[in-house]
Amino acid sequence: MTIDPSRLAPMANAIRALSMDAVQAANSGHPGMPMGMADVATVLWDQFLKFDPSAPDWADRDRFVLSAGHGSMLIYSLLHLSGYERPTIDDIRNFRQLGSPCAGHPENFELAGVECTTGPLGQGLAMAVGMAIAERHLNATYGDELVDHNTWVIAGDGCLMEGINHEAIGLAGHLGLGRLNVLWDDNRITIDGATSLSTCEDIPARYRASGWHTVECDGHDFADIARALGEAAADPRPTLVACHTIIGKGAPHKQGTSATHGSPLGADEVAAARAELGWTAAPFEIPENIAQDWRSTGKRGTDLHRRWEERRASHSRGSEFAAQMAGDLPSLKQFDAYLADLAAAPPTVASRKASEMALGPLTEAVPAMIGGSADLTGSNNTKTKATGPLTSGDYAGRYLYYGIREFGMAAAMNGMALHGGIVPYGGTFLVFSDYCRNAIRLSALQRARVVYVMTHDSIGLGEDGPTHQPVEHLASLRAMPNLLVMRPADAIETAECWQLALQRADGPTLLALSRQNLPAIRIDVSENHCARGGYRISAASAPRRVVILATGSELALARDVASALEEKGIGADLVSMPCTELFDAQDADYREDLLPSDALVVSIEAGATFGWHKYVGRDGLAIGLDRYGASAPAEVLFPHFGFSVDSIVPEILSKLNT
Amino acid sequence: MTIDPSRLAPMANAIRALSMDAVQAANSGHPGMPMGMADVATVLWDQFLKFDPSAPDWADRDRFVLSAGHGSMLIYSLLHLSGYERPTIDDIRNFRQLGSPCAGHPENFELAGVECTTGPLGQGLAMAVGMAIAERHLNATYGDELVDHNTWVIAGDGCLMEGINHEAIGLAGHLGLGRLNVLWDDNRITIDGATSLSTCEDIPARYRASGWHTVECDGHDFADIARALGEAAADPRPTLVACHTIIGKGAPHKQGTSATHGSPLGADEVAAARAELGWTAAPFEIPENIAQDWRSTGKRGTDLHRRWEERRASHSRGSEFAAQMAGDLPSLKQFDAYLADLAAAPPTVASRKASEMALGPLTEAVPAMIGGSADLTGSNNTKTKATGPLTSGDYAGRYLYYGIREFGMAAAMNGMALHGGIVPYGGTFLVFSDYCRNAIRLSALQRARVVYVMTHDSIGLGEDGPTHQPVEHLASLRAMPNLLVMRPADAIETAECWQLALQRADGPTLLALSRQNLPAIRIDVSENHCARGGYRISAASAPRRVVILATGSELALARDVASALEEKGIGADLVSMPCTELFDAQDADYREDLLPSDALVVSIEAGATFGWHKYVGRDGLAIGLDRYGASAPAEVLFPHFGFSVDSIVPEILSKLNT
């Protein structure tokens, strides 16, 4: 390893120059972090990171995660300087402008080389834990020849103060993820001022308490950085490298203060910084010798990639590996057989149990699936025969005991999905979607195939009471763009929803499943009806005046309500609506046919009515629960809160007569 | 201190008997934790906890928080045995049944003596941090004679694994909350099995890294427990007491296993446990000598309470203290003057700035208000002249630098509000309501007066891009029962919303505030129009065909749209809707008058349209953003996403013509 400060210092200054100039041009952004971590990042890129700028999606590349995503100009600079096709210098000139891939925070869907979307603090690190799990699992499955890479993270004080970081490092320490190294930008500054305003924590001691190795370095001494990163790479434990840095390093009057964190330096200070750094090139220009030194950093990786590609081509499982990394699903024939069996003898089971039943053939057929639960394995029904425990002693396992770490679990799943080669699913109670909500949002924003198995999806949970009974959760999750919320009504719908979730390669799906048993309603399996989001279960016999719309556990009740109306000569269609988002995507004719304007539309769902008026209109009837639940057996709670034929039919009749 | 095991052991066994019998009768619940922690809780109650069963709301009582809320039978047993009026033995017989205050998890609104609602893991501990802050602040304000108590927490492995616990202990360690002691039920068992399935953490080492004192004890040795709790009480730092326990202690065949965690023991094991414990009394019966020993535990506190009440009665600030603890608001005359000034010269300011302006006179007038921000003080505009920093060196301060700990902040605010004497408010970006969502839910469920100052409330945030731009958040929060979501449109509405938030003693309010400047629209301050949730800003001049409905930053756009329609001879009312929940609470006439069925209703809000069809109906027009935003200046983004007169007017015309 050659550490030549006279070569590295100008390279680091190129990052500083691009960062302060781009922020200045945008009149918005965060120069402090890229300038502070420029030296560390330069050593990482030049000496340690395995990457091929000409093949950003090379499966065996190291993963680099900028968890402190506000310092986005750091990664844009690194990608541009080291020769990635994008961002171009014009992209950087247009930093934070509409149409530029150089968004305010790094977005995986904008730029190859950005492994995940960061900005919500702590989650980059937590996703990196997932990437490191994926790496070890695929290594255990396919061997060193195909999978043998590291995961590097740059994190700030904010990432380390967020609760999710506790969950993430606990998981990483427990699983012994030695390929994971976190470079902590230890600059003692947060937005509000000195870190001493809000924390006294001995961060390395905390990491050691979770089974991590820790080292430190002077973040502005290239040799010391290289030593520390070398120790990090060599140690069999995950490593935290405390990089002592000066935020905004190079800006003579503002460095070391929170003034550099989130605002442009200003023209005067930029000029002063150029003088301080000896940087004479015009804004957005990189002197050719420095540009060449930067482009040379990719050479090591390009060579390694070529040799790796040769190994893969001749490897007996090389194609299989490539297909798994591409996210291809194997044949689901076994699953079709399972569906046929269901249709032959539709069972009365809880949909969480139906999910377990569906997962049996699915996890057997799809080796990419890795399951888990946040300490509710027996309640979420997420474990199957095919998924043995994934532990520090056996990374080939396919089931993660995530512990009581919902947010860490969700973020790790995002990381696994984005790493590639893994289709993660994980469970908790639906009410605790609150605990991991922003990670679900990041699944949706990042277009990651993650399946959330959220059980105990209503007051049907019963005795555990209002803290554990979701009320507003279905509504609040349906409001989230690009997340499919599915609430199947019986075993066949549950199987169909699982199939749709797996087939959806570009986004997450959340399955809301019952604790309590549900009768079988669907019989026909000729077609996946759930794919349309909503569909008619039965048409009115008497002239249609009402359409009853329901999801999940309330479909059976809706069926009884429809029957009661029919008995009174009031025609009532019954519509199952397992996924409103998929229904909204149907054409207008289909939607109008299902929910005709001339009928009274009634929705029934044991949750907030919020959102249902889109289907029932101002004149319809949205039956739900717009208050918190109570602690009692489920069979007591449903009628208590009005979920009974006796309560609902009169409401409908009264509505019809007004 | 007299530790007499021959007296304490039967007392502890009374807890065990009640717990296993109640769970058995309910056929649902968690016997393992109460049985495991019975010995520790008995020592705490008998020797340390300051409480008066005849006055559960005594201001200077110690606060006891059962963070591991699933072990609810522990606290129900303790309250009943030590002589609180409720729960009665019949309440306990009806554990987990509709109407019993002995809900599945402890609920503060069901039982005096339950300081907060627990069950969502980690949050009890985090609320206790808030209670301990409140105690130190009120102590600094009113002195030892009136305020001098401890906060005791029982927490399980789940509480300590959740991310929020990292945030909470970091805050507590930093603030040096020596009156806070956490008794960790260190039983090495979680639901999925041994803790070794999911963690290798050295928990005490982590606590020490955050500035805590740690001790340990044999959780089944009364003298050792007493020694450890004594050391905890004496140490000036917050203390973690690792109580080594056996889960389900006393159930001979199941103790020490996760089988005792969350299921009834079964009749055979209950019988075996009675034999093991030498407990011969019938279910729900407590032998009189044991009952007497239990009732004697309250004597110490009853005496202390009497002496305290004498001190308070003769204290120069005794009445003031009582009023503050009761949550009474002082006169807001200064605030009325501020409102009049606004009306005289309505400013063009961001609503976050308007919030800061309103907070000036409010924090000056209301000493109970304690502000703060999760490291976004300058962005959330939460700090005022009256609120100096609350630090370990000066607890009299009224501003908390919460650090990058949104969840910890929200839970601490719940704890402060529930302690009494404090009206907490705290800020972060609206998008990061995701990070503290379940604590917001607990504010609402617990009916706690907490004000959330959530700024940067739409794509108006601009360049930071989609990770930082809320889209679904307004909808998802409106779906939450008992939370008021307010999105004021200008400085006067912001002031009115602040007034409503403070006056709301029985629940939380969330203010969604803009980053960008907003023109003044309201002038009239004769009445708080926001109190009705929605109100007409201007009536149509031409015959009314359209009602335009908007919130916050879109009200000005809506005004321009209405003007453009009027110019075309299409009458359009303009309605401001700062709070849909308050509007829903108005009578039908008011609502129909504002949103008449014969007009086309159009809503405009820069967020998900989800939920707006309740007002616009199936035939109306909900204009919003049903996708993630983008990184660009706000003034580019609004028209880009269709928020412009040029985009909206044609949509309305087309709708009118169909």
Automatic annotation (TrEMBL), chains A, B:
It catalyses: D-sedoheptulose 7-phosphate + D-glyceraldehyde 3-phosphate = aldehydo-D-ribose 5-phosphate + D-xylulose 5-phosphate. Residues 349-520 form the Transketolase-like pyrimidine-binding domain. Its EC number is 2.2.1.1. Its cofactor is thiamine diphosphate; Mg(2+); Ca(2+); Mn(2+). It is an enzyme of class 2 (transferase). Binds 1 thiamine pyrophosphate per subunit. Pfam families: Transket_pyr, Transketolase_C_1, Transketolase_N. Keywords: Calcium, Magnesium, Metal-binding, Thiamine pyrophosphate, Transferase. Gene3D superfamilies: 3.40.50.920, 3.40.50.970. PROSITE patterns: TRANSKETOLASE_1, TRANSKETOLASE_2. CDD domains: TPP_PYR_DXS_TK_like, TPP_TK. PANTHER family: TRANSKETOLASE, TRANSKETOLASE 1-RELATED. Catalyzes the transfer of a two-carbon ketol group from a ketose donor to an aldose acceptor, via a covalent intermediate with the cofactor thiamine pyrophosphate. Homodimer. Belongs to the transketolase family. This is Transketolase. It comes from Novosphingobium tardum. The gene is tkt.
